[in-house]
Amino acid sequence: MAKNRFEQVNEIQPDAITLVLKRDIDGATGSVVMPAASSGGRLSNDQVSAPLPAQDAFRGAIRLANDVKLAIVVCDPDGVWKPEWGDLYQPLD
């Protein structure tokens, strides 16, 4: 079965759900950002989840993306991403 592919970005995107992963003293964590610009007027501000364990944040981003029919992009400056979650790619300019 083919792996899912996720675009790796350097900043939060206004047209997709952004999974922000980081590594700190608490270990690998993640937050999910739902942009107001992509909410169809339902949100007046971007919504950001509380930090969660990285795998829980990944699962939450998948559920949210399926519910609201948006793409997911990943901001992962600390290299938290796990290969079993899918493939990360950066588009060629």
Please name the defining characteristics of this protein:
93 residues, alpha/beta, 16% helix, 33% strand, globular
Short précis:
The protein has 93 residues and is α/β, with parallel strands linked by helices. The protein has one helix and seven strands, in the order βββββαββ. The chain has one helix at residues 54-68, and strands at residues 5-8, 17-24, 27-34, 47-48, 52-53, 72-75, 87-89.
Number of helices: 1
| Mean pLDDT, all residues | 90
**Which regions are unreliable across 5 or more consecutive residues at pLDDT < 50?**
none
User: Structural class, from secondary structure content?
Assistant: alpha/beta
Our Rg estimate from Cα atoms comes to 13 Å
The end-to-end distance, rounded to whole angstroms, is: 29 Å
Q: Secondary-structure element sequence?
A: EEEEEHEE
- DSSP summary, beta strand count: 7
Total individual domains: 1
Instruction: Report the sheet-strand fraction.
Output: 25-35%
Helix content: 10-25%
- What general form does the structure show? globular
Main beta sheet strand tally, sense and closure: 7 strands, mixed
